[in-house]
Design a protein that fits this description.
Blueprint lengths: L1 E4 L7 H12 L17 H10 L1 E7 L2 E10 L4 E8 L8 H16 L3 E7 L3 H9 L3 E6 L9 E7 L8
Parallel strand pairs: 4-5
Antiparallel strand pairs: 1-2, 2-3, 3-4, 5-7, 6-7
């Protein structure tokens, strides 16, 4: 299994879309509003990869995981962290998150930030175990109740040798 950055040579957008939709399928009917993953297309994923920092995990020829990263003023946003359902819970998500931590360090950003739906308490527990802290509760536009939580992970400052 290897994790590679998405670049101009990547052309497997339909397969990547299928991976994300399969990974997020368990949310269907559990979260409101529905996942933004449902609005993705192969074309919008290609555009996302041009605007953000994407990585895919490949086992043989099969795409098995991905994540997208977006630098913000004080952190690196982690989005669309996806692992095929049959491989979840085996460490691949954590390996992808390590890529996010390394990317944040290269960019000089002190933290990671992600958002997860309020209903997905199992995700909250996993992210907490990975060192994230709940920092905010928010609502999607048009909703009076909390629909998602923001979580952050502070990263150790790099050791500078002089």
């Amino acid at each position: 299994m290897t994790i590679i950055p998405l670049d101009h040579n990547f052309t497997r957008w339909d397969e990547l879309l299928a991976l994300i939709l399969a990974s997020f399928a368990s949310m269907n009917g559990r979260i409101d509003p529905p996942s933004s993953a449902l609005a993705l297309t192969a074309e919008s994923l290609a555009e996302k990869a041009r605007a953000e920092i994407g990585h895919v995990a490949i086992d043989g020829e099969k795409l098995i995981g991905c994540l997208f990263l977006r630098p913000e003023a004080d952190c690196l946003y982690v989005g669309k962290l996806a692992v095929l359902p049959g491989l979840q819970g085996k460490g691949l998500g954590r390996r992808l998150l390590t890529i996010a931590e390394q990317t944040a360090a290269k960019l000089g950003l002190p933290a990671l930030r992600l958002e997860t739906r309020i209903e997905l308490t199992d995700n909250h527990a996993v992210f907490t175990a990975w060192g994230f802290l709940r920092t905010a509760e928010k609502a999607h536009p048009g909703f009076a109740r909390t629909t998602f939580v923001e979580m952050r992970k502070s990263l150790a400052p790099p050791i500078r040798l002089t």
